[in-house]
Fold Histidine triad (HIT) family protein.
Amino acid sequence: MSDCIFCRIVKGEIPAAKVYEDEQMLAFKDIRPIAPVHVLVIPKRHIESLATVGEEDAALLGHLFASIGKIAAEQGATDGFRTIINSGRVGGQEVYHLHAHIIGGGAPLPAMI
Ligand code: 5GP
Ligand code: ZN
């Protein structure tokens, strides 16, 4: 997806403050952080959103989720964090490349549900 901003970050065409990278996934700081720790975790392969995830993505997403706790702790969210995945228009998704927000490092966040 040449016009996808997160694919362009993966390719190195747009700079990002990377905090973790391996063959399958990338984590980088959100450009508009809402907390002391605000990191986006993405699969390198373009997947639009949770709405389009299929069984063929299970191993990749399992790996991504298994990495979130370590990334959060390394970034300083040692006392808990919130993980948010916005999906589609109603879900408030702005960038249509699947990403998990890791938010923490500050005061306890207000309950959402
Ligand atoms: P969404 O609403 O899609 O879940 O959130 C997209 C997030 O991507 C927003 O928090 C926004 O600040 C972040 N973002 C958008 N463009 C860029 C960018 O070019 N670089 C980085 N690091 N973050 C971005
Ligand atoms: Zn993409």
Observations:
- The mean pLDDT is 97.
